[in-house]
Design brief:
2 helices; about 30% helix; about 30% strand; elongated
């Protein structure tokens, strides 16, 4: 498996209607968080410890909530808020 990120449950629900510049910032930050998670959770799918808690990432124009699931090798973006 390869680390990735995705909108949960889907893009329209999480970020639909937000300006394209804000969406680009969210996706850019999600890419960076995935690279960091891949470096930190080297055992990925065989990870056995307690999973990390969800977190907030601030980007220009707002913020988004995400959850890293090492065993899925995935970062899930759950909510994006454009201010």
């Amino acid at each position: 498996m390869t680390w990735r990120w995705e909108y949960d449950p889907d893009e329209a629900y999480v970020i639909g209607g937000a300006p394209p510049a804000f969406v680009a910032e969210v996706e850019k930050q999600a890419d960076e968080l995935v690279r960091a998670a891949a470096a930190f959770y080297l055992d990925g799918t065989s990870y056995q410890e307690a999973g990390p808690k969800g977190n907030v990432s601030h980007v220009p124009g707002g913020f988004f909530l995400y959850l890293i699931v090492p065993r899925h090798e995935c970062l899930y973006v759950h909510q994006a808020t454009y201010l």
